[in-house]
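Sorry to interrupt, but I need a hand with the structure work. Could you write out one complete protein record for me, on any chain you like? Just paste the record in under my message, thanks.

. . .
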Amino acid sequence: MYAALSTNVVTLGMVELASASVVPEGQMLTAVLISGLWVSFLVITYAGLIVTIPRAGGDYVWQSRLLGPGLGFVVSATGLWFILWLWAPIYGSILSEELFQPLSADLGHAGAARWFASGDGRFLASAVAVAMAGLVVSLGMEGYARVQVWCFGGGLAGFLAFLALLAAFGRKDFAASVDHYGAALFHLDAAYGGVVARARSSPHFGLLPLGASMRLVPMMMFYLLWPNTGSSLYGEVRDADELWRVLKGMLSGLWTTVALSVAFLLLAEKTFGWSFYLGANAAWARGDSPFGVFPYPAMLAGWLVRSQAFQVALLLVMSLWFFGWVGTLFLPSTRLIFATALDGVLPGAVAKVSARRRVPVLALVLMLVPALLVSALYSYWPEFGRFTLDAVLVIAVTYLFSTVSALVLPWRRRDLWQASPASRFRLAKVPVVPAAALATTGLLVFDLYEWLSDGIYGVNGRASLIFMGLLYLLAAAVYSTSRRVRRRRGADPVAVFRSIPES
């Protein structure tokens, strides 16, 4: 469930699947399938690292022990601590686009729906998302697990009902419903035909061409790259050294998301029409959407049933995907911060855990406060919003260094590798984990090359590169300061990194 909610088909998926309009000749269906297959190698790589060193902190522990303490801290702290501050307004935007905006619209308050799309509305949504993330993380792992069970079960039921709607109705029914509610809620004439007419292209839906579809793969990483997000939590998970249990959990979560994504795309083409779907999303991205709100597929599908109560109920049930997912905003980063404090890089007080719920409270505070500040910048400084696009790239860099850690593990820590069940995972006498790490390196290098060389992804501008560089410099400054302080106190600043932490 954690892996499926991390690679969330609703909150992340429906936002990123809307980006198909950026490469209209590419095929989103192909991109999703290729991405799912390629990310499966990432899962195998991380499963090997987890069962070999199942410790709180995940990437930080592996990199600091296998690649060096300074490099490990700088890469992992930037990618799984500082950069996650930028995810707070992303979570807030999704909460606004997939709950507050469509709910206001369906209740007949189009003005309120548009307000939630404004800076003030987005900041309010971000503040709510940050507060909710802090709340569910403060429940501890056991409490959050219960929240996820209910949200995943209810959300999955809602998504299947959503797919059933798309399967039961045809395109003429959908066009009629969009025309009806476009007029009733937004005072539009012939809304469906207007969106199709304004579409800048009339792409086909299928599997080819492959080349253009590969340009969509780096976009799919926005939601499919995260089945391993729980890796920093395995120090708190029973039987974390059982390879098949770890592998099955992450792979089943990833492929649940892929399967639901494929079903959605096929039914969206059937019922919405691909030209309408791409046209509505392209208009939203350009800022000239006739609806003035995000064309959330659950809102559009709800219009097929002319009952306000049903439409509201569908939105609320689908929102369970968000509520089950929101804890992922802070949960991995708090464990990384805890692990760095346990090593003495941060003050020891940061590693203190509440006795009742087993939550690193100060680590949580180090996420909450900056996340609110970043959310304010995102909401009221439009130029800053572009920096949130860097969030995926920086985390991918972190994953790349962990992949390198998996490659060097059999040589750098031969004792750990031989004692690990991952060393016995072979196919035709070939160790599977190192082979998967090579394939994962290909995925991440491909994505990084595309992001940095092609302007359509929005992360290779000078300002973005400077911003990312400053984050790495901040991490380097924190580590350098910590090392000087420990030396002045007479401690060996690297001695702790020669051993694996006990917890």
